[in-house]
Write a structure and sequence with these properties.
Elements: H1 2-9, H2 12-30, H3 40-61, H4 70-83, H5 87-108, H6 113-120, E1 125-130, E2 133-138, E3 147-150, E4 159-164, E5 167-170, H7 172-175, E6 181-183, E7 188-189, E8 194-195, E9 200-206, H8 212-225, H9 233-256, H10 259-269, H11 272-291, E10 294-296, H12 299-305, E11 310-313, H13 315-319, E12 320-331, H14 338-349, H15 355-366, E13 375-380, E14 384-389, E15 392-397, H16 399-404, H17 414-422, E16 426-432, E17 435-446, H18 450-459, E18 463-467, H19 472-482, E19 486-488, H20 493-505, E20 510-514, H21 520-525, E21 528-532, H22 538-543, E22 546-548, H23 555-589, H24 595-614
Parallel strand pairs: 11-18, 11-20, 18-19, 20-21, 21-22
Antiparallel strand pairs: 1-2, 1-3, 3-9, 4-7, 4-9, 5-6, 5-8, 10-22, 12-17, 13-14, 14-15, 15-16, 16-17
Helix pairs in contact: 1-3, 2-3, 2-5, 3-4, 3-5, 4-5, 4-9, 4-10, 5-11, 5-24, 9-10, 10-23, 10-24, 11-23, 11-24, 12-23, 14-15, 23-24
Length: 622
Amino acid sequence: MIKKINGILGGVCATLIGGAFLVLSLVLPKLGIEVPVNPAWITVIISSIPLLYLAVWRIIHNSGISKISSALLISIAMIAAIAIGDLFAAGEVAFIMAIGAILEDMTTNRAKKGLKKLISLAPTQGRRIVNGKEEMISAEQIQKGDILRVLPGEIIPVDGIIVSGETSVDQSIMTGESLPVDKTANDDVFCGTINRFGAIDIKATKVGEDSSLQKLIDMVKEAENNKAPMARIADKVASWLVPVALLIAVVTGFATNDIVRAVTVLVVFCPCALVLSTPTAIMAAIGQATKHGVIIKSGEALEKMGKVDTIAFDKTGTLTYGRLEVSDIISFDNTVSQDNLLTLAASAEVKSEHPLGKAIVSYAKEKELALTESNNFKMAAGKGIFAEINGEKILCGNEKFLSDHNVTVNSDILPELEKLRAQGKASILIAKNDCCIGVIALSDVLKPYAKDMVSRLGAMNTDTVLLTGDNKKTADYFAKQVGIKEIYAELLPEDKVKNITLLQNNNRSVCMIGDGVNDAPALKTANVGVAMGSMGSDIAVEAADIALMSDDISKIPYLKCLSNATLKTIKFSITLSMCINFVAVALSVMNVLNPTTGALVHNAGSCLVVLIAALLYDRKFE
């Protein structure tokens, strides 16, 4: 009940009402209008109850020096002002504290939908094989050692090993790889991944809480729980500010025999400008970032981004577009041109559902090549396709697929294939009538501004790291293209988390940038997580602290500059507010200020801090 009342009184509406009555308490006497009850009492009642509750709660529940907080000092000052009858001063300090709390809440609200979406990916049922018969059972009923059949398009319900069948599996949820991975007997498969093509039978090896997807969910939960809330700067300072303020007030009261001076010291010593310095600067910076398509979810994230010295990138969908395009067309037959080879391969692949085949067909259509209708189309999951075009037998696939069809890949072709693999490209061999006539290579596409972005971060003394689920050759190739020298490849989600933790253990403050579901634990574990907003998965976006709505990673240096400037602004505002406080204390001791004028000076300091923070909103960052 008390929390509910505090929630209402500490809300925006109630606080604004309190502010209106505070203004009336100052303006009405100036206009010669008398009212039976000072309007400032309304402000005191509205704004002081949550403040007093917070101060008492911290005294009871906090340990050690943390019992002393800014809320305690402001409560003491407020009560002292009421005791001498200066209601305006009491209401003013309570009102500014309420404004600071609202601003801070606005900058620290975090979305919690991502974890629910991740949990929703967990399979709910599986197809168990018992005595040669299929039966649908719930995922909870699957036991270790059960044989399960997974049809094309279905989600694999548990971790397991293939006992029969061949397929290609979309493992992007676990590894972020842009390509389905070919699987055959004795290969491992993971819960939550998608069987794309052939039907397979698997033997369950890890079920329930032990499955890879459940571990992914658990890692996100654990990382979320480990995110400690930002300790408010005012409360850190309050551990010494409260005793100092009380000491000066007591000494002043006894030395001058004037209780009003003592109360004035308490009023001007209140850290309201200090309380406002952080949330106002962060609000302005968040507004500035929003104009540039960068969504910052919390003040804590912005503050930590300013301290980041290492930025770790996922590859697929982050440094690259995450889409396959034809990169090389190499003919091994002088009578077959590149366009002829592409036309032949695309005509054969038209009926294929494999991403590589679709990319080849799409490229041929972009070039406006005329495709020929194929016959007798057959697909070997995870290997390649067969088709007849104008009576000629066409094969498109890997070396093993061609070998299985008695097509020999000459030794002089192998160096070319190795070169393509070294560049991280997927290769499709094309054979016509039992003769290998060429190869078409496909590659993910590097974002054109990635190299410049890495270079600019280096100029800002920020290290860059590549963390990817792709194979080592692909990772090395793309890292070299953009200038990243620290590379970790073939990583599962837990491996990314381990690598980030190792970096943090080496006293590095890490920002992780990714876009896939598999990046969610790493985004949560890093000091700051940045997700691709428009093309990234909803789960990654919700797990991250910051989202790039246009997927423009060239915004990363801007984000770092903005964060650095915000930290500098906060530090400057804190220093300025403390200087104003100390000058005001001196003037209070000398009886230049009384509680009311002291409250106005105190208010002016708070307004100055807000003005300085507001300048961040329109500042230009290169």
